[in-house]
Amino acid sequence: MEWETVIGLEIHVQLATNTKIFSGASTAFGAEPNTQACAVDLALPGTLPVFNDGAQKMAIMFGLAINADIGKRAVFERKNYFYPDLPKGYQTTQLEAPVVGEGFVDIETEAGERRVRIHHAHLEEDAGKSLHEDFHGQSGIDLNRAGTPLVEIVSEPDMRTSKEAAAYARKIHAIVTTLGICDGNMAEGSMRCDCNVSIRPKGSETLGTRTELKNINSFRFIERAIDTEVERQIDLIEDGGTVVQETRLYDPDKNETRSMRSKEDANDYRYFPCPDLLPVVVDDAYVEAIRLTLPELPDARKERFISELGLSEYDAGVLSAYRDQADYFESVVECCGDAKLAANWVMGELAKNLNAADLSIEKSPVSAEQLGGLLVRIKDNTISGNIAKKVFEVQWNEGGTADEVIEAKGLKQVTDTGAIESMIDEVIANASAQVEQYKAAEPEKRGKMLGFFMGQVMKASGGKANPGAVTGILKSKLDALCD
Amino acid sequence: MSIDRSDVERIAHLARLELNEQDIPAYTENLSSILNLIDEMQQIDTDGVEPLAHPLDAVQRLRADEVTELNQRDKLQAVAPAVEEGLFLVPKVIE
Amino acid sequence: MFEKTLSELAQDLRNGTVSSVELTQAFIDRINRCDSEYNAFITTTPELALQQAKAADESLAAGTGGPFTGLPIAHKDLFCTEGVKTSCGSKMLDNFKSPYDATVVAKFKAAGAVMLGKTNMDEFAMGSTNESSFYGDCKNPWDTSRVPGGSSGGSAAAVAARLTPAATGSDTGGSIRQPAAFCGITGIKPTYGRVSRYGMVAYASSLDQGGPMARSAEDCALMLNVMAGQDAMDSTSSAQPTEDYTASLNHSLQGLKIGVPKEFMSADLDSAMAAQIETAIKQLESLGATIKEVSLPNTRMSIPAYYIIAPAEASSNLSRFDGVRYGYRCEEPKDLEDLYKRTRGEGFGSEVKRRIMVGTYALCAGYYDAYYNKAQQIRRLIQQDFMRIFEEVDVIVGPTTPSPAFTIGEKVNDPVAMYMEDIFTLSLNLAGLPGMSVPCGQVNGLPVGLQLIGNYFDEARLLNVAHQYQQNTEWHTLSPVTA
To answer: Residue C212 sits in a domain of what CATH number?
Structure first.
């Protein structure tokens, strides 16, 4: 039988506020355990929540970015359950009246653009962390993260392949990082993804039983986890079994999903409106003021990269996906005036080096201005593309402007034809066998044989000879020998 | 509505309350009579009545996103039953 | 000295007839001498009190004192007091020294008040007799075989027994007014949101309200001047401006329109008490008020509605007591569930467990609409009843309780019979309205309380009516003890 996969995503995005959603404690990452957990975060008796305006604004920014209805009257509710990383014994969240209503995003798929509907997005508080290092057989609880504001973005089950799911997650990532409401660091848990996966016979309209995959912390794992789970479900059903609705944990090391039965336990969360918080009411003026602060969103930026800068669809898509990268790219373009060249370098040499060093672009040792200056020197023929890579390497390791590096290392391109001619003469003189082959070859095949001589000349010049000049002179000298 | 022993056990589990075996019959009886009292509500017609969650028609005040709480870990953990290296200790959490 | 009111003592302090240290020492001595008879205090803080008294004397001498400087008071043991045990009458918090001050406590400190100690109460404010306290029954000073009422029973008994001139209380379903009535003192539950709940350990968040308990309306006004006001730490505290609650005490009652609900003067009311209440109403009439019968048809329904809403909120509010971050923890828990269940099973008393279970049950999926939602709808109806009446009258008057103080142990095993005793007080909390209890007579040597109910934020008017009544009657000056 042919199966169709149905996927919906719940993405938790940690908001980049200064303080917790309901207290004035800092949300900075990486502090000593419990040093950022104040009386409210510890749920000391008598403490009460006060809602953070920053979290509200960021949630509304997201809502506006996905073309959603903004909830003019949002209500916080309590989700009751016991867990050591949940100090109050309930999570404050939104259920019936979330801050962001229905919206959508468009994603690129192999089959073209596709719309994914977003059911709603709501604000809630993050939990703390249980550390399982052995404290005499006990766990340690760090509540620094408790109360960090989250927006949970709940999609409709609109995706049909794991690739679409990953593309959707990337799109959400692009939006929240562009808005500056999340640092987007998936490894640190700033963005976490749960995937609801089910299968059904192709053509069927009814949804199959779904499982929820948790603990997925990269786009690659979204694809792999879903593929693995779909395979498991198909095998199960084709072997006569049935899928059980449950939460499953994805294990990236083994590339498998496994049941988390311990947490199922027929929980009844006993939701009810939080009596310590009042309805959050916003008016049009509040929303419109936020709309004015919205930066250019990834879709709009991509369009502009195509229409104004002449980038390909693909390049524009990659470069607009992260705000920092897009900003960097645009600065490079501003310096060098060549978008295509800038795109190649940002997506090529720079990306390669950043990946190898596991750095994000805002931590790049080579600034946009440094790179832009380098590209200027390629364009004006001061250096070749290959030399530029060397200059870049020096900039990456030691710093400096392109001009400083070119000067210090003597990498300036040789354009003096006299010097080039004498190098060529020497190469021809030392390569009589190759010259003979060249002469014996059909004229139309000689072009391909030029490469050997080019290489020798460039080698002799230490790479500094202007490749255009070398080609011209070399060809005329060799052709002269043939006559 | 009357409830039985299994209801009481289920509720006690949800609320994470250990009850002494010998107290369960009394709780069952008490809770049943309380629920009977509560069931008097059902005689009132409340169709279309908007529930009242808060007595005053006030709306949530928003707090500026500024850090006001600084580290007070030592003071706050002075009342904790078990702490090590700044962490609250609990029996092993199994995920 | 022990028979003097706060206002009189304030005068003495300013005149220098007595120092705050002398006054404080006298009350400390009296507590030490007499409290074994009443068990009104859970904790006394003599060193702290004398320290505060000394500072108060200095500021009085320097002329920098305010109206409350140097006056001794006691706090109900659910107001968090930094460095001082805050038990809520529970084994759960027997070892809990709060690391911070409740807003109310901080305000009294800032006003120069002296704290004598923390008063006994029903465990987590759940009860009408003080019998659920982990620290043992508190006794009614008028008859020590009888209950002082609850949950602020310790505060009421302490004021009545002249162990403190005044005390704070909290009122979720009558917990200020009922013990005030039983002990023959004056107490006011302000409008919901008038006094900050920050640091007042929560029972039912949408109903709880702190307030003054003292010997006269004038003293309550003095205290409310300190306590009232919006608090940035409590989202539900009201932005409504406060006023000087002593300013209108002497206004005439000429033209005052009083409503008497027929449901309050019904068969539920003890007949001897009914006569006292009627006499008090006539007294008010003689002071210039006009009397009108009104109807609160849903009075009876306040009992089931309250006993859903309060336990539901409590079941969630009390989840934080889990033995992880503070408070009681069971011995050697074998796993997490054991830690939770035994800590809570052993740390909470039976009435608290009962209410947590009722609330848990009411919030369960499947029962939510029939219980919690229904109760909130009835709450709306009750509020509408009051609003209708306040279109016609200024103040509503009736009994505070159906009968005078009952004997210790009389209703302890019959929670339903106990809950019925709250019939006249619950509806105000559900509607969030302010209410007072004022001594207005005696039945068999036991005090009778007259309840005054005002419109939202009409505390000043209630205090005015009570003060005028007390200017013309002696009931509030009767003392159960010879000091």
So the answer is: 3.90.1300.10
